[in-house]
Amino acid sequence: MEEIVSLDTFQPFDGMMKMFPHHNFPYFNCDYNLLLTLANYFKKDELPILNNVISIYRFDKQKIKTRGYFKLEVLDLEDGDKILEEMGISIRRKSPALDTLQDEIINSISSGNPISIFIDLFYQHGRDFYYNKKHGLHPVFVYGFNLTTEEIYTVDDITEYRQYSLPFSEFKLSCLSSEHVKMPNYFWEYALVSPADHDILNNKKLAQKNINKFVENMCRYQNEITESLNNILLLAENFELVITNETIIETLSSTIYRKCSEKYRLNTLYKYNIDHINAKHTLDSLLDQIINDWKTVRIYSNKAIMSKKFTGEIIDKCIGLLTKIYTNEVHFNNHFYLMLKAASL
Question: pTM higher than 0.85, yes or no?
Answer without folding.
Answer: yes
